[in-house]
Design brief:
Blueprint: E1 8-10, E2 13-19, E3 24-26, E4 29-31, E5 36-40, H1 43-53, E6 57-60, E7 65-68, H2 73-81, E8 93-95, E9 99-100, E10 106-107, E11 111-113, E12 118-120, H3 135-148, H4 157-172, E13 181-186, H5 193-205, E14 210-212, H6 218-231, E15 235-238, H7 248-255, E16 258-262, E17 269-273, E18 277-283, E19 295-299, H8 316-322, H9 324-340, H10 354-366, H11 376-381, H12 384-395, H13 404-412, H14 421-433, H15 446-456, E20 464-471, E21 477-483
Parallel strand pairs: 8-12, 13-18, 13-19, 14-15, 15-18
Antiparallel strand pairs: 1-2, 2-5, 3-4, 4-14, 6-7, 9-10, 11-12, 16-17, 20-21
Helix pairs in contact: 1-2, 3-9, 4-5, 4-9, 4-10, 5-8, 9-10, 12-14, 13-15
């Protein structure tokens, strides 16, 4: 510990930071060359560290003298066995650029910061961020960031503000208890979605973003996200998503300060901090379910059939690398000015992300930018789960109570030949809306439909909601659709 050995506790694991040489792909995560990851400290590595730092000697009886030896393996075994009972510092995050502490001060001295548990590892020379920048200095700093993203075809001002918020979030993320995920959407491939994300990643980490393949299965998603959290990745992208993105575990990662992750190959879990910036990209990207309120959408549209054929005067990724020190200092100047002047915070703050809203979102709007959350309502309206629920609410009978089984009978009893057109259309709409609850044998699954009703009970969509009406004589749950 006194020799500043690069050993840190992360939950109940002992880890050490390692720099990757060459692009690698591990457990579905692709990382760029130069990325810093955390790897578990195994017995041989710990023996090597202890041997290099401590003068171990053994008495040689034949020579009646002491001679140098390697650290006895039993010492390493004993240290590793004291899992969770170590003097090693708890490591919350690894950064390669200055960042902001939770109290609003700037961390710009390389090394381990005992106050925050952040390891600042960088060989660059970083200037001091002014302690009390003026609003004019903050506006000038914001101009540098706007110049960097000037050539991207943002749909409107809120999309540009959301892109700036992504850059600020990537640098301030270690000081925030939670932060939303930034989603970059475009109607056509080649519009610049990954490039925009990589700008923020390069400024924050010096490298392009670590990329996940974003599997559909929740279990696989949990494994891949868990692997990135264990490795301490600071910037993570779910790239080229071709389906409505939903994930319960991702919802937890975005809103909670720490999550429990199972160690692959072992029967134990680790409680890991979630202080990483998450992004997602996709063409006609759709967000589903509870994840809709946890994202900030950035829309790009080049307005052409083949946007990849556009020619730019400047390579923005190379510019971000070459001017990284100046641009990072500009971003932190913006945040520091907002904190130093105790500028007004936007009310109401975004639920579950109050810290982010009170710093990043409010700082941009303080400087006259549009609200980064300007697309929130569009994200919710484009939610396939909302669309599905709305169609079901619209098709269910209104003005009377019913049971799930009665709805099933209504679907399976087709109108007669003499039925009125309105009755036929009503039956067809109900059968189409509830088609997912039909089994292969043509029977309606009232149990699954009942689960759907309980899950969505009370949720208001398009002025309607499902309400419970108690139970009938046979103690079967009754429901109704209520107009609000």
């Amino acid at each position: 510990m006194k020799a500043d050995a690069q050993l840190y506790a992360r939950g109940t694991s002992l880890v050490r930071p390692v720099t990757i040489y060459g692009t690698t792909t591990s457990r579905g995560v692709k990382r760029a060359e130069g990325a810093t990851v955390l790897v578990p400290v195994e017995k041989p590595a710990l023996v090597e560290v202890l041997t290099s730092l401590i003068d171990w000697q053994r008495f040689d009886g034949r020579k009646t003298d002491w001679k140098p030896v390697a650290c006895p393996p039993v010492v390493a075994d004993t240290i590793l066995a004291r899992r969770g009972d170590w003097p090693f510092h708890q490591l919350n995050a690894v950064v390669s650029a200055p960042t902001m502490r939770p109290d609003g001060t700037i961390l710009n001295v390389p090394g381990f910061d005992y106050e925050t548990g952040i390891l600042f590892a960088s060989e660059l020379t970083w200037p001091q961020v002014p302690d009390r920048p003026t609003m004019e200095e903050a506006s000038d700093a914001l101009g540098h960031l706007e110049d960097l993203v000037e050539d991207f075809p943002f749909v409107d001002a809120s999309d540009r503000a959301a892109a700036l918020a992504m850059i600020l979030t990537a640098l301030a993320r270690p000081c925030l208890p939670s932060a939303p995920m930034f989603c970059v959407n475009a109607p056509t491939p080649g519009t610049g979605k990954s490039k925009l994300v990589d700008i923020a990643a390069i400024l924050a980490t010096g490298q392009t973003a670590s990329v996940l393949s974003a599997p559909r299965e929740e279990a696989e998603m949990q494994k891949q996200l868990g692997a990135t959290l264990m490795a301490g990745d600071a910037f993570i992208t779910l790239d080229n998503i071709e389906y409505p993105l939903r994930s319960e575990f991702l919802c937890q990662v975005l809103t909670q300060g720490s999550v429990a992750v199972r160690v692959l190959g072992e029967s134990r879990t680790l409680k890991l901090p979630t202080c990483a910036t998450f992004c997602a990209t996709g063409n006609s990207l759709r967000i589903a379910g509870d994840l809709t309120r946890r994202v900030v959408m950035i829309n790009l549209d080049a307005g052409m059939e083949r946007p990849e054929e556009r020619v730019f005067d400047v390579d923005v990724l190379e510019t971000a690398r070459r001017q990284r020190v100046r641009l990072v200092t500009a971003a932190l100047t913006i945040l520091r000015a907002f904190v130093a002047h105790r500028a007004p915070k936007i009310v109401p703050a975004l639920g579950s992300f109050e810290g982010w809203s009170n710093l990043v979102r409010s700082a941009l709007m303080w400087l006259g930018k549009a609200d980064p959350l300007g697309n929130t309502e569009k994200v919710r309206e484009n939610d396939p789960e909302r669309e599905r629920t709305a169609s079901i609410l619209s098709a269910l009978p209104a003005g009377k109570d019913w049971t799930a089984a009665e709805i099933g009978k209504k679907i399976q009893q087709r109108p007669g030949l003499d039925a009125e057109d309105a009755e036929v259309r009503e039956h067809e709409a109900l059968a189409e809306a509830l088609g997912e609850f039909m089994e292969r044998n043509g029977q309606f699954n009232a149990v699954r439909f009942g689960h759907f009703l309980r899950k969505h009970m009370g949720r208001i969509i398009d002025g309607k909601r499902i309400v419970s009406r108690g139970k009938d004589r046979n103690k079967i749950a009754m429901w109704a659709v209520e107009d609000i």
